[in-house]
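Troubleshooting entry. The earlier prediction with glutamic acid gave an output that would not parse, so I re-checked the input for stray whitespace and re-submitted. Clean input:
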Amino acid sequence: MESELKAPIRVRFAPSPTGYPHLGNIRTALFNWLFARHHKGKFILRIEDTDVARRVEGAVETILDSLLWLGLEWDEGPYLQSQRLHLYLDVSTRLLEEGHAYTCYCSPERLETMRQEQIKRKQPPGYDGHCRHLTQGEKTRLEKSGIAPVVRFKTPLAGETSFHDLIRGQITFKNITLSDFILLKSDGYPTYHLANIVDDHLMNISHVLRADEWLSSTPLHALLYQALDWQPPQFAHLPMILGPDKSKLSKRHGATTLTEYREQGYLPEAMVNFLALLGWSLDDKTELLSRDQLVEHFSLERIGKSGAIFNRTKLEWMNGVYLRRLGAAEFAQRATPFLDRDLPSSARRPLDLAYVRQVTSLLQERSRTLAEIPQLADFFFLDAIDYDAGLLLGKEMNAESAANALQAAVTELGRARTWDASSLEGILRPLAATLNLSTRNFFGLLRAATTGRTAAPPLFQTMAVLGQQKCLQRLAAALQKLPAVQQ
Ligand code: GLU
């Protein structure tokens, strides 16, 4: 099918600023962007902000920010529908004049009564066409009484409306199931249907790639294109994103907005790779694809029809892969804002970037998200560490032997002239033997004393980064703690 595509390819991402973009929105943006880049077409950004009551403060900024963060730069826009109201009004007027639309004066109360009746009679919901047949005289009277009408489309009462979907094939709706939907609201703002097709037409959109949930709107759009004698774009409805329990992805399944993933320390390059595989695949095995590879291979043919399951474990794994692929300096740079944000306030700021780099080089292999780093690394940045004295004693050790061992370590390490991982190893391994302790016990004691935890990056490297002074202080502090240990 794509081989038949005619240039120019123009696609759009058309979010409504009614909230922060969630993964589904962003997946739609990404597929449009990949499609445009693959075909050397244009990716247009349009903000569908005509639902004034549902606008959310800051949503537009967050949408732009999310796209930029992922590197989905747009070629045109952002166009704001709220600044184009005259265009929709013109088309609405044309549809009225040509007999494809009519003004409706029904009050909210009447519509509500109608809805209740429909429920009672088990009829499909939808406007009953009450105002469709008003005479000119009745309209004038209603208008004089001060009622601001809405404009409704005259949906054919019989027959069918079909359109071709590039992913799902031919789709047909019975017109009887489509009601006379609103085009223009009484405040002069267009509805989604009107503004969306007017803009797709005026912006020469060649393909509409959007989420499955819009499928039921498409017959309405097809009817509008017919009425206006406009060539419709091609449609491709993207499969829904599902949670692991196969229900629609929602808050219940964890974080849903892209911003949350960013804050949780996911890399944009991992998000792009991960989102691309929510509904599209290269083959049945390839998981890791760079942005360039995605652009090269993206095609509508490989988008599935059935829902795409969101797998958080896979995202974490993928993020870890991308984290390990970063150069050490880059990794440090990306980790710094997270350290700044999440290290305890007692950590000295501004952070010493050279030191950050030494610390993060020990963590790059073992972190899955950037947000994990501050808690893996906090002991590197604090003057004093707090831990339970019980951590100091491994098996086969009591407070006395631990005190001996610590004392010996303080003495030997105090004499050290060089302080790097291999010289520390050169001092501490023989010392374990001299003390007649297993390295497991002795190093466990030193790890607890210098980091306050039982699991940390390799001991000698950790101590090397902490530095001689800090290590000696912490060993001395551990000695002070020992008497408090319950045997
Ligand atoms: N404004 C709609 C949305 O929020 C656009 C749907 C479409 O792409 O037609 O997703």
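This one parsed fine. The domain at 2-80+193-211 is CATH 3.40.50.620 (Rossmann fold).
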